[in-house]
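Standup notes
- DV: blocked on the single-chain target, sequence here:
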Amino acid sequence: MTAGKTLIPSAKVREILGISESTLYRYQRQTSMQFPKPFRLNGRLLWDAHEVHAFIETLRYMKARIQTFAALPIGTLDR
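- DV (later): unblocked, structure below
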């Protein structure tokens, strides 16, 4: 299940994302965010580092798309 994966603990995930413990908990509960699911190992929650970085790239992509649409003149998408 975890062979060949680089696993990172909650504290590192929070540091990478710049979020609090409660926000990390909220991300896990909010299925619409498609936040990576953690592994439980010896009672600790660990995340696949690749999945966390892929999540960050998805957020960056979505932010860019939103900014692109926000910059369009009103009515552009109505045609």
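- Follow-up: The two ends are 49 Å apart (CA to CA).
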